[in-house]
Amino acid sequence: MAPSITADSLLQLAQKPPQDARERFALYEAARRLMLSVEDPMSVGSRVTAAGVSQVAIDLKIFELLANEPSKHWSVGELEKHTGAQASLLDRLMRNLAVNNLVLEVAHATYSASHLTARCASKAFSAGLAHSKNVIWPGLQVLPTFLAENGYRNPNDHVKSACMRGVGFDGDVMAYLRENPEKAAASYAFMAENKKEAPKWVDGKVPTTDLVLSKEEVADGRVMAVDVGGGSGHQCEAIRKAFPHLKGRVLVEDLPFMVNRIDKEHARAIDFEVVAHDFFKPQPVISAKVYYMRNVIHDWDDERASAILKHTREAMAKDSVLFIDEIILPEFGASTRQVHMDLAVMVFAGAMERTNGQWKNLLGSNGFQIRDVWVYDEQLGAAVIAAVPTSE
Length: 392
Ligand SMILES: C[S@@+](CC[C@H](N)C(=O)[O-])C[C@H]1O[C@@H](n2cnc3c(N)ncnc32)[C@H](O)[C@@H]1O
What we know:
The structure is a single chain. This protein is an alpha/beta fold. The protein is about 45% helix and about 15% strand. It folds into three domains: about 15-120, Arc Repressor Mutant, subunit A (Orthogonal Bundle); about 125-195, no CATH class; about 210-390, Rossmann fold, CATH 3.40.50.150. It has helices spanning about 5-15, 20-40, 50-60, 60-70, 75-85, 85-100, 115-120, 125-150, 160-165, 175-180, 180-195, 215-220, 235-240, 255-260, 265-270, 300-315, 335-350, 355-365; strands at about 75, 105, 110-115, 225-230, 250-255, 275, 290-295, 320-330, 355, 370-375, 380-390. Strands 4, 5, 6, 7, 8, 9, 10 and 11 form an eight-stranded mixed sheet that branches. Strands 1-3-2 form a three-stranded antiparallel sheet. β8, α17 and β9 form a beta-alpha-beta unit. S-adenosylmethionine binds near residues 229, 230, 258, 278 and 279. S-adenosylmethionine binds near residues 174, 230, 258 and 278.
């Protein structure tokens, strides 16, 4: 240990961490590595229990309770009155949440909110947990057998993914969600809520030049942007809200069972159109200025991703641009969230997050060249890759 760093100085830092996001992330990664390097090997297993207990805390509305009165100290007796759960059980659950810093243990059988409790009480957190519980955990549970049986090859089958095996469904993930509307609703909420609090591509880091249409193009009804596989259309809404001056039509496309869920009145009020479309079929919207895809390609192996890209390329005009909004994994030293996302898409859909080199190869082999890359969330490595058709 460097002589100036002691356990006391680290604890002091923990009580008053810096506010700057970049500095916090650097510290988080450094502290995580420190923790892993000094962790007692017998403690490794205990780290994974937090998620199940968090779901119980969500069900009992414990995070909400604590987050609403952040300075209050709650005895387990008081928590019992509010939740109806037995105090002695609550104490065991709360101390589990406390070792993971999701709440603070302030005295014997007494707890208060930590800096993470409000986040745990958010819709984004519970939607993410519900999505994980419904599909990701069953996939992780069977992953060892699944990989052993496929000879330890990179999974690349959307239909026979570890998750589908885990939930015991004979079909692909989309069919599973279609047949299980309450699980689809959780996944849907997760996608919409997930990045609400995170940096967004429309927040100024990505120039709007590609989205600007001439008066003639607007009069012609040219499409300014089409959000391919756009789920509920939240990115169409983001475009309209962030750039109210931009003219032209904005459309969201997704499978019928997904777009049927969209509130059409709301879409009209925000001014985006809703189109049912399967992106493995020819793209019906020809010559849009921008084809935007967020977290779409990462759900597919290279072969199927190529099919989606091919249909998009065929629809593009000379001045169309493809915006791919995805994680770009670093070639070395990926962060916790990045490896988590990569594993999640592996078990979910036999798919993958990609490095810069992998994006370049995938796009290059489908007739695109990368024109620009704008990283808008450095911690996640989330970026908009602007790609244009390679000139013949
Ligand atoms: C990971 S989600 C991303 C959704 C949205 N772009 C976002 O960033 O929140 C993938 C989306 O692809 C859609 N999708 C899957 N298969 C599709 C297909 N064959 N045609 C069109 N959309 C599809 C799903 O319904 C889902 O909305």
